[in-house]
Structure prediction request, 225 residues.
Amino acid sequence: DTEVTQTPKHLVMGMTNKKSLKCEQHMGHRAMYWYKQKAKKPPELMFVYSYEKLSINESVPSRFSPECPNSSLLNLHLHALQPEDSALYLCASSQSPVQATIYGYTFGSGTRLTVV
Amino acid sequence: ELKVEQNPLFLSMQEGKNYTIYCNYSTTSDRLYWYRQDPGKSLESLFVLLSNGAVKQEGRLMASLDTKARLSTLHITAAVHDLSATYFCAGNTGNQFYFGTGTSLTVIP
Prediction:
């Protein structure tokens, strides 16, 4: 299995809702990442988990809450989002943060989030 | 913070023609990466360039890296419609990746 699987593929939520995005990989990768990508813009790093521990948080608002329950799974919990948070949320993984610099990332197909 | 810039931002080219996308970065980057993204889809890794002078080719795409000039190029040879996509380069400092602005490529018959 050489894939990063993200669910759901599309999500529409209201500003008072609570929802979660899920990301799963079974490649034995120990680093997982959340990126946010607005239309026609490059991906922006949100969070990095390394060996199930949060190692980088790029000053992301607290309405985004990441969680890494185990080495295969990464969640992004969403609460009280704003319309400007509408974007494509990409999960990625690598063997480790250091290995990412040699081989790059494996990206999931993304979750298209719309906040209404 | 590493700044990565690409040009052009938009490129419309005829099938069969050659063209080059340029990627400049602001400070030392350990390596340079090229990704392809189809509309509404995820990013697909194309090339990882590990050192100065690295050149990699896959099909009609060839990427190169000049760390002294802080420049990477993605050369497209004899373009075909299937190459239409957005191409991102990315650099890294340590474990952090920084993506360029992207080049939206459209290949027209």
Observations:
- The first strand of chain B starts at residue 4 and ends at 7.
- The CA atoms of residues 59 and 77 of chain B lie 9 Å apart.
- The radius of gyration of chain B is 13 Å.
